Amino acid sequence: MEERNRVLGESVSSLLDQGKMQAALALLDGLQPADAAEVLESLPAGERLRIFKTWDVEESSEALLEMSEDGQIEVMQGLARNLAMRIISEMPPDDAVDLLGDLPEKTSEALLASMSPVKAGQLRRLLAHGEETAGGLMTPEAMRLSEELTVGDVLDRLRETPENVEMIYYVYFQDEKNRLTGVNSLRELIIAEPGTPVMEIMHRNLKTVNPEEDQEIVASIIDRYDLLAVPVVDAEGRLLGIVTVDDVMDVMEEEAKEDIYSLAGSWEAEERRERNPFLAAILGRLPWVLIALALELLVAGGILRVFSDTMQEHIALVFFIPAILSMGGTVSLQSATRMSMDILGEGAGRRGFVKSIAGELIIGLVIAMFSGVVISLFAWSMQQDTRLGMVVGVAMACTIVFAALIGSLLPLLLKALGRDPSKASEPFLSTVMDILGLTVYFLIGIALI
User: I need a surface site. Which of 203, 222, 356, 391 has the fewest CB within 10 A?
Assistant: First the structure.
């Protein structure tokens, strides 16, 4: 928290203790919604609820949107139903739907039942779409006009635009059947001659998505084409709404967190939505830990038992097991991360993926040569045993090459199976490479010693 907001929080709390509610509200009114939210979340729950029960509905709805998910739920559940309904009704539809989706189902239904039929119907239609789809992200309040207008007519309509239209930087045009036919930016309309028909200057080659499109695809389209919004259309081409860049930024942040947790073999980000943080941390990490433990004990342990005679005869081999396994796990995770980024970034198709795999193999070969030579010389220096140096060096090189190959292929396999490529997590890769590394190491040891 910024020092300024911490001091403001103390000031608001002090004013509330003195019974100066209006002074506290005046202080909050002068803040940006994000700062007001931070100040509110620094207050005790009771004081926070007192403010929301008294504060202007429009101001409180803007601040509430900037609060954490847990903070929003706590406030909404602490307010009277009528007041909670009025606050939600002030929000943009896409934000209102997000909040309703986070609340318990009974609470959401009660709030919807207390709204006007028109508002409740609008929100129910948005709620019908999946939370992580374009339909779940979109706002229906886009600026849409007839393609038969002139530029001057459009500008006149823009001056009369209601405040609830979220974005007027793009103006979308429709035909007589309400099918989306084109778009212009506000800048293009301002510099055009007023008498020009918009059909002559509008862009007809639009990037659109259907309401069930995954949010990651929507985010990639906005990012790739530098858009401020992307229209959502139905099967007949009718404009349902738009997904704006601010919604996409939230999506990208959430997806980045999930990918990071996935690479670490944890799903805490998802679990936190439904459980307390401590339990989420345990349940999010435990599955991969147990799988890795079982594989290490049953498979890797079995490999060590099979080659126990070799280890007894050449005890020096044992000293290099940690280095070989560590390098295998590290290189495989690096390759998997690189390939996952290529896949999630939509890469360059099959040829692009083949090129990426080839690139990772070349990098793996170079690393393998250097690492193999270094560890081979180190092993030789321990006992002046050339065969030991050869075994350790060749095993290290082979393990690294296999690690680069497996790390590159696993995300592609997950994608082919319809799974998230980022699920190629570090615990799983490390366990696979432990098993493979041990097998390669001792087979080479038997062959060369």
Answer: 203
